[in-house]
Amino acid sequence: KAHTRFPRNTKVTLGEAGGITQHIGAYQLEIHDKKITFLDTPGHAAFTAMRARGAQITDITILVVAADDGVMPQTIEAINHAKAAGMPIIVAVNKIDKPQANPDRVMQELTEYELVPEAWGGDTIFAPISAKFGEGLENLLDMILLVSEVEELKANPDRRA
């Protein structure tokens, strides 16, 4: 079974203080003849300003929530940034490969923030993934393309960044 791997070097955090990502990373993938540009902001609580800025310049928020940790304070903050910017949110429930993973708990916790899974009658896309093994990433990318189509998102290559 083929799995998608994101191009970012996942070992990058080992060289950063405390093993915590401290920079905004950017990379681009091409899938089904369409390009998706990702801005990866640090999830650690100390990087509120970076997440706020990231929310202002993106079209879709991919909210990554660990299936073993559930909703954390910075998860709530990221939801608030995305909602304030009026952008769609896709929830990627990560670490589904871990024995203690509980994706249903994550979905339940997020309903408190008006992110109700489509499977439960809501309008929020939830994509279970394992970034470690690449499981579910193809589906996540397809969901990103679907949302960008529905929202009619188009890049303007002539516009200044």
Proportion of β residues? 15-25%
Low-confidence segments, ≥5 residues, pLDDT <50? 1-5, 8-20
CATH level-1 class of the domain at 41-150: Alpha Beta
Number of strands: 5
Overall geometric form: globular
Mean pLDDT: 79
Task: Give the strand order, joined by hyphens, for the main sheet.
Answer: 3-4-5
What is the CATH-assigned architecture of the domain at 41-150?
3-Layer(aba) Sandwich
Can you say what the CATH homologous superfamily of the domain at 41-150 is? P-loop containing nucleotide triphosphate hydrolases
Q: What structural keywords apply?
A:
single chain, 28% helix, GTPase activity, disordered N terminus, nucleotide-binding, GTP-binding, 161 residues, initiation factor, Translational initiation factor IF2, Rossmann fold, two-stranded antiparallel sheet
What does it look like?
The protein is α/β, with parallel strands linked by helices. It has a domain at 41-150: Rossmann fold, CATH 3.40.50. The chain is built from 4 helices and 5 strands; from the N terminus they run ββαβαβαβα. The protein has helices at 48-56, 73-85, 103-111, 137-150, and strands spanning 25-31, 34-40, 61-66, 89-94, 125-128. Strand 3 (61-66), helix 2 and strand 4 (89-94) form a beta-alpha-beta unit. 23% of the residues are buried. Residues 1-5 and 8-20 have low confidence and may be disordered. This is Translational initiation factor IF2. Belongs to the TRAFAC class translation factor GTPase superfamily. Classic translation factor GTPase family. IF-2 subfamily. It comes from Listeria monocytogenes.
